[in-house]
């Protein structure tokens, strides 16, 4: 099976300064999730039929996705932040989300020769789908040094796969889909 080829890696920041201020303390339910991995969900679409003038002007779809992501982060400032810790005098540590607009990971990749049917036809998810996600294998506590949100857009032969990895400390299933629907 074909390998995934990296096209570009960028950091997308919120389009305004609102995302660069504030601190959100974690509660005991949030802290329970520090040792588990990021939530990963993907969306599979057929290749969009773009007007001819879009095709000649580079990859407008990727540009549009980055721009709309930046605007969506305005309403979700904690996703553009990082986890942080505070050392207390009694030798305990507390975690919080630093809404510092450090940005989210945005990867554009291609899986040459992989079609939609390769993904949806088998009974089990093919192993290549794992490589359609960024931030694989990270535990949530690593959100201190890694983005809390990672998006990977993978071009397929006849489609596009949007893979989203989000730190489970800052989002549960409902808020995860609220973010994706808002984007």
Topology summary:
Blueprint: E1 5-12, E2 23-25, H1 28-32, E3 39-46, H2 52-55, H3 60-72, E4 82-87, E5 93-98, E6 104-110, H4 116-120, E7 149-155, E8 159-166, H5 173-182
Parallel strand pairs: 6-7
Antiparallel strand pairs: 1-6, 2-5, 3-8, 4-5, 7-8
Account of the protein in words:
- The longest helix is centred in the middle third of the chain and has 13 residues, at about 60-70.
- The chain has one domain (about 5-180): Chloramphenicol Acetyltransferase (2-Layer Sandwich), CATH 3.30.559.
- The model has no long low-confidence stretch (mean pLDDT about 90).
- Helix 4 links the parallel strand 6 (about 105-110) and strand 7.
- It has five helices and eight strands; from the N terminus they run ββαβααβββαββα.
- The strands form two sheets. It has a five-stranded mixed beta sheet with strand order 1-6-7-8-3, with helices on one face. Strands 2-5-4 form a three-stranded antiparallel beta sheet, with no helix packed on it.
- It is about 20% helix and about 30% strand.
- The protein starts with a strand and ends with a helix.
- With about 180 residues, the protein is α+β, with helices and mostly antiparallel strands.
- The chain is globular and about 60 Å long.
- This is Acetyltransferase.
- Pfam families: Transferase (PF02458).
- GO terms for molecular function: transferase activity.
- Keywords: Transferase.
């Amino acid at each position: 099976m074909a390998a995934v080829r990296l096209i570009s890696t960028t950091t997308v920041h919120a389009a305004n300064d609102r995302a660069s201020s504030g601190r959100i303390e974690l509660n005991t339910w949030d802290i329970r999730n520090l040792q588990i991995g990021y939530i990963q969900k993907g969306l599979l679409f057929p290749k969009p039929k773009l007007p001819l003038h879009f095709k000649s002007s580079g990859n407008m779809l990727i540009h549009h996705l980055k721009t709309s992501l930046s605007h969506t982060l305005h309403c979700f400032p904690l996703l553009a932040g990082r986890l942080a810790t505070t050392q207390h005098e009694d030798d305990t540590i507390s975690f919080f989300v630093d809404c510092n607009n450090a940005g989210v990971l945005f990867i554009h990749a291609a899986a040459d020769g992989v079609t939609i049917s390769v993904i949806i036809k088998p009974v089990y998810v093919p192993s290549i789908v794992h490589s359609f996600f960024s931030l694989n294998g990270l535990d949530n506590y690593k959100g201190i040094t890694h983005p809390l949100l990672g998006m990977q857009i993978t071009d397929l032969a006849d489609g596009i796969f949007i893979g989203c990895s989000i730190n489970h400390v800052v989002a549960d299933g409902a808020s995860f889909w609220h973010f994706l629907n808002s984007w």
